[in-house]
Write a structure and sequence with these properties.
Blueprint lengths: L11 E4 L2 H6 L2 E6 L10 H15 L4 E6 L4 H13 L2 E7 L6 H8 L3 E5 L1 H5 L1 H9 L5 E3 L7 H12 L7 E6 L3 H12 L5 E6 L6 H8 L8 E2 L13 H14 L8 H13 L8 E6 L3 H5 L6
Parallel strand pairs: 2-10, 3-4, 3-6, 4-5, 7-8, 7-10, 8-9
Antiparallel strand pairs: 1-2
Bound molecules: pyridoxal-5'-phosphate (PLP).
């Protein structure tokens, strides 16, 4: 079995735009998308301490959950193959075949399709099949857990310079929670911002608190969901097309596209004072693009 070491400190890359010059701000990207092609971005961060715990508890099967285009399913499948765990993925909805699920299978994941109703109660799905199986370990959708937040806190520990504002896309809120934890640990004066990719994004504050982390000081920008999870609008697609062309950094419509769009929009509205240094967390996410490639 391979050891669970997998250290890669992603770079902080400055990006340029005439807008930033005009507004007097500097914008950097923490390139977590460069961590690994398939255990990408925050999905590796979220799995790191989870897998250490799995190893310590002598378990060998990772059981987890996701949609048919889930970055987390793919990351778990690939991490399982890399570190010697078998993997079982419960996929929400009717059986489908797509490039992401094909990659999951390539990495040896067993896929089980379950109805949206069953999917709602994941612990009971796990309990039914694995209740008596001491080798199986339950990993929540998106990797959401305290271990996940612990891993994401290391984004802050790694930083080579300090920033005034840090922005991150949010699905379950685990990454945001970890970032806040990292900022508190370092007693740094950085303002954290979350951009929920789902409608009604205020719920993220509760999800952060549920991991035992104070969320009061976090700013949530809840108007950049573009209609809801995995929903998009021509405006967003146009922004992504021009951003990727201009920077060579890939972003996609489900997560990072919404984050970067929000950042540009807030800068345009003079939300940030002159001389502000802003860091955008690139959380990875090839699959968000693959799921919508026909739109490009
Ligand atoms: C899963 C994912 C997120 C959401 O992270 P949470 O910790 O669930 O909030 C953000 N960006 C990308 C690219 C993701 O794949």
């Amino acid at each position: 079995m391979n050891t669970l070491s997998f250290e890669f400190h992603s770079p902080e890359q400055e990006i340029n735009d005439t807008l930033f010059l005009e507004k007097g701000v500097r914008v950097f990207v923490k390139r977590d998308d460069m961590i690994h092609p398939f255990i990408s971005g925050n999905k590796w961060r979220k799995l790191k301490y989870t897998l250490q715990r799995v190893r310590k508890e002598n378990k060998s099967t990772l059981v987890t959950f996701g949609g048919a285009w889930s970055n987390h399913l793919l990351a778990t499948a690939c991490a399982g193959a890399t570190f010697g765990f078998s993997t079982i993925g419960y996929v929400r909805g009717d059986e489908v075949h797509n490039p992401v699920l094909a990659l999951c299978k390539l990495y040896g994941m067993e896929l089980c399709f379950i109805s949206r109703d069953d999917y709602r109660d994941k612990p009971s799905v796990f309990e039914k099949r694995f209740g008596l199986d001491s080798a199986a370990f339950f990993i929540n959708e998106g990797g959401y857990s305290q271990e996940a937040a612990q891993g994401c806190a290391e984004i802050i520990t790694e930083l080579q310079q300090s920033y005034d504002d840090i922005l991150c896309a949010c699905g379950t809120g685990a990454t945001l929670a970890g970032l806040q934890q990292g900022i508190s640990n370092k007693t740094m004066d950085m303002q954290l911002h979350g951009v929920p990719v789902l409608k009604g994004g205020e719920f993220i504050r509760k999800e952060v608190q549920q991991l035992g982390i104070t969320a009061q000081t976090i700013k949530l920008h809840t108007d950049y969901h573009f209609g809801g999870y995995a929903k998009t609008k021509p405006d967003l697609l146009g922004f992504i097309q021009s951003f990727v062309t201009q920077t060579g950094i890939m972003i996609e419509p489900t997560y990072t596209g919404k984050l970067f769009y929000a950042a540009y929009d807030l800068i345009r509205q003079d939300y940030f004072a002159r001389d502000t240094k802003i860091l955008l967390i690139h959380t990875g996410g090839l699959t968000g693009f693959l799921g919508m490639y026909e739109k490009f």
